Amino acid sequence: MARRRFTVRGVVQGVGFRPFVAGLARRLALVGFVRNDSGAVVIEVEGPEPVLDAFAGALTAELPPLAAIDSIAATAREPLGDSAFHIDPSAAAGGRRTSVPPDVATCAACLAELRDPHDRRFAYPFLNCTHCGPRFTIIESLPYDRATTTMRRFGMCDACRAEYEDPGNRRYHAEPTACPDCGPHVWFEGGATRVERAAAIDTARAWVHDGSIVALKGIGGFHLACDASHDAAVSELRRRKGRGDKPFALMAPSLDAVRRLCHVSDDEAAQLESRARPIVLVRRREGSGVSPHVAPGQDHLGVMLPYSPLHHLLVTDGPWVLTSGNRSDEPIARDNDEARTRLASLADAFLFHDRDIHAVCDDSVVRVARGAPLPIRRSRGFAPFPVRLPFEVPPVLAVGGELKATFCVAAGHDAYLSQHIGDMETVETLTAFERAVDHLLRLFDIAPSVVAVDHHPGYLSSQWGSAWAAARGLPVVRVQHHHAHHAAILAEHGIALDQQALGLIFDGTGYGLDGTVWGGEALAGGYTGIERAARLGLTPLPASDADVRHGFRLALAHLAAAGVEWDDDLPPVRACAPADRAVLARRFAQGIGMVGSSSMGRLFDAVASLCGVRHASAYEAQAAIELEAAARGIADDDAGVRYGFARVALGGPVEWLAAPLIHAIVDDVRAGVSIGRISARFHDAVARLGLQMARDARATEGVDIVGLSGGVFQNVRLLDRTVALLEADGFRVLTHRLVPPNDGGLSLGQAVYAAQSVRLPAAAPPAA
Ligand code: ZN
Ligand code: ZN
Ligand code: FE
Is residue 90 scored above 50 in pLDDT? Predict the structure, then answer.
């Protein structure tokens, strides 16, 4: 007889790992115990040596679907002669960290029960098991046990308890397990109507069918729902939310239903059906019956499949609009009272339930590029799953940027990115941000030793992070925006500390280190010690928020910079009222409210206006999205080579001026070349610019790894073309698969940058 102790780290709590271990030990007739520690799962097994070896092998080979092992340490112990194998109550918290699993969509076994009239959980909207259900959104602290979740107040009935304690049952130690006798319930409130349980779900569905807007409490917060084919309901929802033209997401009952709305590739289907159940952006079909108000002007729809039992019960025909329960610019509503107040003017009725949401978590959004997911928003189903770092870091808090904010807490080899917080522009969002920071720091027991913020002094996040650090006497590292994007793409791919790479960071805007606005950058270096090798030529751009929303002003600026007269035959000139034109001309002449900018995002806006796609954007990147869509189905042609950039090297970063490109586009516009053709040539030109920047870096610095990051690389046409050109030229190309290329991924880069800066004083950032 021998005894062995295994200490297992990774995603091993809340994923059915302990029941799996107990089942395995009993199958092999081993005695001992398994126990959750806050940092690991500890197993001790006793029996003949060969059987212990078999146990060790099966531990990794037969892992439950949601578990992921980072490390297993095995040590020999003195045999104790236990009489059986048992699951020990959780050890007290303290010390090391364990991953918290994300929320996972209802599994096939649970779904079968949900639809089985003879099952005791038939049509019960909160059924789950060890392989599915809510996790991150209901866990308050570790170790993960029912007592540390918002399920605490629901005492299990005898039947649920028996399943929970039966090692052979798939609900063995499923912490959120429940049934109609002992678990949470739904109820409907609308006007004078109040109904409970199954009737509440039928009533909510009927109200949606009749054209009402119903607030639904879900997994990570409230949604606002309406019938996606009901024009009046969708446009009313748009009006109430103050949403402009920004597209709404849909939930469709099945993959077949999605296929009736959209052209779905196999890779997109795989994303739709993945356990995270994100919103997937898929190309829409004509005449699908979806209201034109759902996604005006878009050739894609954001669609997701039901991911909780409640959704499966509600969205039976669909599709429904399911958009986050908030007014635009505010965080998503979380608890019932808050929803009653904040959503009163948005919803006609409410479908509530009494399981509390501890952490709000919006739906995630992905596109598919080159067969792989391209995260646009990483939130429910992913957060707080860590990004594994290739090196160890001290405890750090990185607060992110301003738009699409996330933050990151990292320590050791793990970088935990928060769920999507939203645009950090209001006090409400800041409050939600603070709450989420507290939750993640507590969950992973991390006490930051350094705080990373964006270099922009005006960002709410930078101010909050600096104050937070000051209150604790911690150093603050200010990280240049595009340096953070660069570090993020390297970290995501596990690039080693001493490795050099070129980051092509094509972005909207970020605060530069030289008083200009950056955004079309070729950055050479590792995680720190980053040099600006090249940039898009500096163009004086009108810089107010209103200017940026009005793409024709950016087009006029690029025309002026290229020395092209503002003639009436050009779309942006026609889009600008004569009086405005005079004001703008004076601003350009006197440099009023102008800033030098190398922004690639603004160049896309300008070109969208120049070829007549869109002159004003109601939401971020609208013009660029439509410009990409305009080129669909059009192949690159040789004539696009005329769309070049002029290379200027006068010491300092190489500048690539857009003037020749602007002239070529003007010529094509005047020659009546189609918008789609111009767009295709433009995308090709930007990809070739990336290739030229990379070739320069290889020639001067010997760099052969190229990372693509920044919000412009949400553009799949550009991404595909750039990757193809670079790979054909022998580069190793890194693209985002785990975190978004937009500012949602920024905090990861800030965290690793800051971690390296504090450990390598020589690489401290400029002006830190
Ligand atoms: Zn299940
Ligand atoms: Zn029960
Ligand atoms: Fe950015």
Answer: yes
* Closest ligand (CA of 503): 3
pLDDT tens column, 557-591: 999 999 999 999 999 999 999 999 999 999 999 98
Residue range 193-208: mean pLDDT, rounded = 97
Rounded-to-integer distance, Cα 89 and Cα 123, Å: 32
Residue 424's pLDDT is 87
Ligand nearest to the CA of 156: 2
Buried b (16+ CB within 10 A) or exposed e, 400-429: bbbbbbbbbbbbbebbbbbbbbbbbeeeeb
* 49 Cβ contact list (under 8 Å, min separation 6): 2
Q: How far is the CA of 136 from the centre of ligand 2 (A)?
A: 22
Quick one: pLDDT at residue 14? 66
As residues whose CB is below 5 A from the ion ligand 3, the structure lists 507, 743
Compute the distance from residue 660 Cα to the ligand 3 centre, in Å: 26
Q: With beta carbons less than 8 A apart as the criterion, state whether 663 and 564 touch.
A: yes
CA-to-CA distance for 258 and 319, rounded, in angstroms? 8
pLDDT tens, position by position, 401-411: 999 999 999 99
| CA of residue 570 to ligand 1 center, whole Å | 59
Q: Across the chain, what does the average pLDDT equal?
A: 93
Nearest ligand, CA of residue 480? 3
Q: Which ligand has its closest atom nearest to the C-alpha of 741? A: 3
Q: How confident is the model at residue 764 (pLDDT cuts 50, 70, 90)?
A: very low
Quote the ligand 2 centre to 217 CA distance (angstroms).
Answer: 21
Query: Measured between alpha carbons, how far is residue 106 from residues 59, 178, 410, 529, 532 in Å?
Result: 25, 14, 30, 46, 47
Buried b / exposed e over 137-157, threshold 16 CB at 10 Å, is: bbbbbbbbbbebbbbeebebe
Q: Is residue 44 a contact partner of residue 77, using CB atoms and an 8 Å limit?
A: yes
Q: How far is the CA of 589 from the centre of ligand 3 (A)?
A: 29
Considering only CA atoms, which of 408, 462, 456 is closest in space to residue 430? 462
Distance 39 CA to ligand 2 centre (A): 30
On the question of a cis peptide bond just before residue 247, with omega within 30 degrees of 0, the verdict is: no
Residues 351-367: tens digit of each pLDDT: 999 999 999 999 999 99
Each residue's pLDDT tens digit, 437-484: 999 999 988 999 999 999 999 999 999 999 999 999 999 999 999 999
Which SS3 state, helix, strand or coil, does residue 700 take?
A: helix
Q: Which ligand is nearest to the CA of 710?
A: 3
**125 bridge partner residues:** none
pLDDT of residue 94: 40
Instruction: Give the distance (Å) from ligand 2 centre to CA of residue 113.
Output: 14
d(CA 130, ligand 2 centre) in Å: 15
If you measure from the C-alpha of residue 421 to the centroid of ligand 1, how many angstroms do you get, rounded to a whole number? 28
* Residue pair 417/359 in contact by the 8 Å Cβ criterion: no
Tens of pLDDT, residue by residue over 699-718, are 999 999 999 999 999 999 99
**Could you report the per-residue pLDDT of 96-135, keeping only the tens digit for each?**
455 688 999 999 999 999 999 999 999 999 999 988 999 9
Exposure on the CB side of residue 610, measured as CA atoms within 13 A: 32
Ligand 2 centroid to residue 355 C-alpha, Å: 14
- How far, in Å, from the CA of 160 to the mean position of ligand 2? 4
Q: How far is the CA of 40 from the centre of ligand 1 (A)?
A: 24
Each residue of 274-327: pLDDT tens digit? 999 999 999 999 888 999 999 998 999 999 999 999 999 999 988 999 999 988
Q: Measure 182 CA to ligand 2 centroid, in angstroms.
A: 4
Q: Within a 13 Å sphere around the CA of 18, how many CA atoms are in the beta-carbon half?
A: 28
Distance 208 CA to ligand 1 centre (A): 28
Q: What is the pLDDT of residue 398?
A: 98
CA 150 to chain centroid, in Å, comes to: 25
